[in-house]
Amino acid sequence: TVSAPADARSSLANMIRGRAGCSSAGGRAAAAASGAAEIVVSGCGNESINGTYRRDGERDGVPCYRHAAASWTIERDTDRSAGEAVSEWCICDDYGFESHCFVKVAGDLPPAAGWACSPAVCTGHPPSLSGAVAAAAGEAEAVEALLA
Fold first, then answer.
1. Sign, CA torsion 96/97/100/104
2. pTM of the entire structure?
């Protein structure tokens, strides 16, 4: 097992994630009701991470996704142990322990940008996401301000 320093390169998910994967109870039905949610990951230095991800149930109360042709998954994890909830979205191998790519944000959908690669397990450029993703940082706040 490779241990990364406990800084920005180390994923919060490595400390808090359970190994149960996503709960598909209701998740697939919800995905079908709202249209088949898909995310396209591109530009990652680990080319096997790139590709189409389909909704695969729920985890941490939000949708999670599985690569259509590989074992990669996208999920959100939240650590509530320090009294304040700290969340991050992760790209892992089959909801595994090590996050290959991650972004510290608490939204209900994975963000389009802002991802980082864990240098111990993923080298090269971080990915960008498109499709069923959250607005880029600041866009959601700008829309909310206009609607207020």
1. positive
2. 0.70
